[in-house]
């Protein structure tokens, strides 16, 4: 599970949240599914908790956020972090 916190993002916007798992058995990544959304308030602040099952062979995960109104121009991607088992 991860908590996504946005501060000062686009106001009154909805962002898709993808938890992208990496590992040699997954090929490049598993970036197909959306784990959830977070909607910001009038100040651009929002918070959401999302979770996914860990895929077999996954070793790292990162979070990708995309504003649904401007997915290619308003996005954020975290650095990969190691999965603890």
Explain the overall architecture:
By secondary structure, the protein is mainly β. The protein is built from no helices and 7 strands.
Any key phrases for this structure?
85 residues, mainly beta, two-stranded antiparallel ribbon
Quick synopsis:
The protein is mostly beta strands and 85 residues long. Helices cover 0% and strands 42% of the residues.
Distance between the termini: 13 Å
Order of helices and strands: EEEEEEE
Number of helices: 0
Major sheet details: 5 strands, antiparallel
- What are the low-pLDDT stretches, counting only 5+ consecutive residues below 50? none
Please give the number of β-strands. Answer: 7
Shape: elongated
Helical content, roughly? under 10%
Average pLDDT across residues?
Answer: 90
Measured by DSSP, the beta-strand proportion falls in: 35-45%
What does the radius of gyration come to?
A: 13 Å
SSE-based structural type: mainly beta
